[in-house]
Each structure stands twice: as structure tokens, then as C-alpha cells.
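Progress narrative, work stream C.
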Amino acid sequence: MNRRFSLLFVLAVVAATSFAAEDLNGDDLIIQQVVDTDNLLNADHHFRLFKRKFGKSYATKEEHEYRFSVFKTNLRRARRHQKLDPSAVHGITRFSDITPAEFRRNHLGLKRLRLPSDANKAPILPTENLPADFDWRDRGAVTAVKNQGSCGSCWSFSTTGALEGANFLATGKLVSLSEQQLVDCDHECDPEEPGSCDSGCNGGLMNSAFEYTLKAGGLMQEEDYPYTGTDRGTCKFDKTKIAASVANFSVVSLDEDQIAANLVKNGPLAVAINAVFMQTYVGGVSCPYICSKRLDHGVLLVGYGSSGYAPIRLKEKPYWIIKNSWGESWGENGYYKICQGRNVCGVDSMVSTVAAVHTTSQ
């Protein structure tokens, strides 16, 4: 009886502390994850915290009620994701008030295409002496996390991230490149795939963007051609302000050792992934039991680790380190960890490496 009383007392103290934190910390709240409960009795409380933390407001009462209903549905989705992906943490994110369809339309943007049949294949590299852990962020080849906003332009961020890294290896300088140039100016198409053209906020493909960059001569800096998050502008490409150019690009084998070897030798890699678990992802190593390999999101592979602890499986799991384009408030400061070993969510299916040449701006 005493043990039961003690447990109830501890739970009461935790609950009181949580509500006190709401009053004391204002907008700097850490939103409590609710995926371990079987009811939504506190959904209104969590919705209030969610709106405050992410600065959400709605124009009408009807919109507010609709978003609250979507929020409750997404709490249930997060709970399902937690059960399917127990080595990660799933819960409330900045996307918790939008539907999966809105999420796909506004925050993804990879064209669902196969790679061109004539795509260059990366040469097979030796893999015997690869480091156990590797991260290009520690070596100066990765720019700060960016935010694509409500525009399906993920493909452009994956492209610039890979070329930023390649340009760093070629020149020793890290320069943030322009996604907006790709959004406004890149309409490259795969002649074998009808409707495959890069289309601004309506999606694109990294290899097509590399092809455009090769033909155009290069990409401008972010500061010279800043991101607007829309595709309603005209192309403002200025060849005299090219900051990085593509020498060549190629597709990497599905073999994970080859992916790691190309990452270590050639810099960050442009990668496609299925993002279904990313809408509710909070942190940890994502290793879902079941995940579609239908690719719908372009991201950047920047490193890998050998010892991401998966408590449900009672063993260490190697993982990839992914840079995303949804800002630093998402995931682990804008990054996603996904386990290696079985092409989880298609992460090994479409991997491209690019080499850069230096072009002096005039």
C-alpha cells in the first residue's frame, strides 16, 4: 500500500511541476510528448502549448476548430508511429496541425521518378578502412540548416547541400548556395519520363537539378539570390555571380558500404527518402518496423554513426545522419537519424554524388 501511495505522490509532483513550467517558462516551453497515453483527455492543453511554442494562430473560429481536430488525429498518428518506430521519439511537432496530404504537398516535393537509365554510375570505392563514425559537420562542409517553408522544393535544398559540400572540398570555402535559382530557373526534364520536369514548389529531382546546374554553368550564392519560398517570380540568374559549378555527378550503388565510402571521399550526398515518419519525429534513431520505399522527399546525407542505442531491440544500431530543410526547430536541431541495414524508408535507393569545380565570381 505504501509503495502505491508513493507512486501516486510522485506522479502528482510531476504533474504539478509540468503545469508550473507552463506558467514560468512562457514561450520557451518544452512540449510534453503524449504518445504513451491511450486517451486524448488533455488534447486541449497540449494544443494550447503547441500554438504558443510554434506561434500558431488561426483566422476564424471554424479554422481553429478544424486545426484542433487535425491536431487530435495527429496525436493518434504519433502514438501509432511510436509503436512502429520505438527506437525514436515521436510526438508533437510544428506539423501537428496539418493533414498528411497538406504535409506532402507543402513540405516535401520530390518527383516520384526512377533514375534516368543513362545516369552515370559512381565507381566502386575501397571500403576496408572506413572510419566507424563520420560527420561532415565536424569538417566544415555543411551550411546551417535551412527552411523550405510551405513550398515543395526539398529537391533544391538537397541539390545545393551536396554542391556546397563538393565546392568546399574543391576550394576550401563553405558558401551557401541559392535554392531560389533552382526554383525559378530550373525546368530540366527527363525525356524518358513524361511530366518529369523540375517545377519549383511543385517538385523536382536532384539529378535533374545537377544537370541544369551543369548546363547553366553553376549556382549563385544565397545572399545574391535569396530564398523566397514561392515559385511565382522570374528567373534572375546572373552568370557573372556564379559561386559554384558542377564538374560531374553520378548515382551511388545501393550497397551501404559504397554509400559510406562515397560520403567520406566525395562529401555530403543527395538522398531521397520516404518521409511518412518524419511528420511526427522528435528525435532518436528512427528504425520503423514497416516503412514504404516510395520516395517523396529530398534530403542531404552528411554522416553516419556506429552506436545509436535502440532500447527496444537491446542493441546498438548504426545510423545515417540526415540534414533536412524544415528549420532547426524540427527533429534534432533540423537533423534526422535513420538506421542502416535494410534500406529503411528507401534511404539507400536514390543516392547521388556530385563533384565541383571552382569558378571565380567577377
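Work stream C, second folded protein:
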Amino acid sequence: MGSANGFYSVGEFDLEGKWLIDPKHLFVGPKIGEGAHAKVYEGKYKNQTVAVKILHRGDTPEEIAKREARFAREVAMLSRVQHKNLVKFIGACKDPVMVIVTELLLGGTLRKYLLNMRPSCLDMRVAVGFALDIARAMECLHSHGIIHRDLKPENLILTADHKTVKLADFGLAREESLTEMMTAETGTYRWMAPELYSTVTLRHGEKKHYNNKVDAYSFAIVLWELIHNKLPFEGMSNLQAAYAAAFKNVRPSVDNLPEDLACIVSSCWKEDPNDRPSFSQIIQMLLHYLSTISPPEPVIPQRIFTSKNSVLPPESPGTSALMATRENSGDTSTSEMEPRSRSFFFCFNQCY
């Protein structure tokens, strides 16, 4: 329903009219990812190829209220924060189902890109360049008072040329407030900051104080992973890794890192959040390091092989699957390889 000021009421927030998706112009194609709370499809909106995230509303009144509130937060943040290293928001609608539409990035997730490279590692300049993309996205979020809370390779998407990384999935993002108490154990365990736990074990869902420095810790783990192309805390389960980091102050080894990079990583994952640098400082440190290393030798870009869609773990929201891998039967016909037309997609309105 519209209003005189051009805003539309969507649950717990007002969505500006220009961001309201008209379902009649939305066409949904093949599923490209699935998580615990959403499915992501390739789609078309007004002849633009897009990613369509359709959120599960839930079954119980409590579940429905919780997911609608999460949807409202995510859309509110996406609609007001724009940056070249954030996935571009196109619009959303709440009825007939909760839908978020964003640009479709064709390079796949950083997780899949790194897995396809193993056991090789990224060129150091490429790794640091990706880290700068991530840090700039986080600096933008923090400057708007937003904590992402789920920074990890699954939520980082590459452009088609594999030269730029963009941050996705605001499902767990929250606005930072000096007085707000936030949910503990939020995020994905292996990349989660130690202060999300306590020496007195918190029951899941209890509230405690923390600030945007939780993202600096997660960034350190991602940076370590970019450089080594190994799973951090290898040999441990997600819970074991979180316990070791929180209660034993265990961190991945920095012994094989250049001194400047080791300093950056170590400062970002310090136990005391107040000792960790801001993302503005992290960017300056990364730029300084980049200026000290010589240009790389020309290399032939590695071909990335995509595989069948994988179902994301329950702790990973659906938007992290924004990648151009589609389900297939293994015997793709010639006609299916031809440029896609509008008829390839089904009308969103007809299905809901």
C-alpha cells in the first residue's frame, strides 16, 4: 500500500517506492542455491538478469515473526548502503512471498574459487587485492553503523572476470547501538569472534554486548585463508575451532606469512576487541604492504569449473549462494547452451 511520501509499508519498516519490486515483471528461472532459510534463483526483472532470493516464511507464529523481522532488517540495510564491493540491491517485495532481488554475479563464491585452485595458492597481489575489496566493503558498512556478523568466503562473491570481490548476505547484519544487546553465537563458528562466547557458557540465543570489531576478527580468518588457501583450524570441527579460539586463544599459524601481513592478521584477531584495528586502518596497512611487493609475472587465468549446486549448511543463509552455477542433468543439449530468452523463465506471479 502506498503513501503520499512515496514509501511502502513492509512489515517493520518503510520501503521506499523505488525499491518495491512488481511481481508481474519478475520471472524466475533455475535454482542456483539453497540454504536453511531461503532459496536463490536466477531470474529476470524488467529484462535485467538478476538473483532472486525467496525466503521461507516459517510455520509457527513465532517463526514467522522472527523471519519477517530478519527480512525487514536485511532489506532496510541493503536499500540504504551502496558500494562497488557490496552486491547491488535492486528491490524487494513481501507479498505474495518475501523476495529480495539483487544483481547476479557470475564469478561464483570465493569459497568455490579457492577450492577449485587447491592445492595452488593465489598470487600474493591477487590475495591482498581481494582482501582490500572485502575491507572496503566492511568499512562502508561500519561507517553506516552496520555490523555484518557473518563474514566468510561463502558470503563473498566474485565478478565474472574474477577480478573483484563483493560482499553479500545481510541476513545476520544488525545496526550497532551503544545500548543494544545482541544475540550471542551469531555467525558461522569457524569465523566467529571469541567475544561471541563467554567463559560462563551462554545458552544459545542469550544476549550480550559486542561491537563491530567482531567483523575485524572474521576478516583476519578470511585473510589468512586467502593467503594459504587452506581451511582455517584444519582438522577441527566448526565447534571445536570456535571453542579453541574462544577459550584457549588458539589462532592459525602466521609463521609462514611475510612480517607485515603477519602483523595485520595478528592485530585483527587479537583477543581484546578494543585492540583490533578499524577497517580504515586495515585498508591503509594493506595498501602499504601492496606497495612493497613487486608486480606479478603474467599468468594465464585459471579456468574455473563449476559443479552441481550444493545445499548450504544450515548455519549459512541463502544469499551466500549467489553464483552462476545451475542445476543440470549432465546431458545439456545444444539448445540449452544457446542464449537464454524470456520464455526460459516462469512468471513469478503464476507460481505464488
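The longest helix spans residues 61-80. No further action is required on this item.
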